[in-house]
Design goal:
By secondary structure, this protein is mostly helical. The chain contains four helices and no strands. It has one domain (about 5-85). The protein has helices at about 5-15, 20-30, 45-70, 75-85.
Length: about 80
């Protein structure tokens, strides 16, 4: 399964465990009572998963750049075959 699908239940449990989802729902109910306020369509779990994915790929890209720029970081046969010796 894609990484985001694997992260979703963990994020859901974590957000529920600290009360974030309950608090968010309460805030959004109050916000919904504000006249002329624009509608907000945000799923907190999806948002957290998206930001988590952004973070994972940010650090993955940094590590890839380090491996490409520093041959000493090519420590396994797989890395050597992918990035060269």
């Amino acid at each position: 399964a894609p990484l985001a699908q694997e992260m979703k239940p963990v994020v859901d449990d974590s957000l529920a465990g600290v009360g974030a989802l309950e608090l968010y729902d309460s805030v959004m109910k109050q916000y919904g009572k504000v006249p002329f306020a624009p509608e907000v369509d945000l799923d907190m779990s999806d948002y957290v998963v998206d930001k988590g994915m952004d973070g994972i790929f940010y650090y993955l890209a940094r590590e890839e750049a380090a491996i490409r720029n520093n041959p000493a970081k090519r420590t396994t046969d797989l890395l050597k075959s992918v990035f060269g010796n």
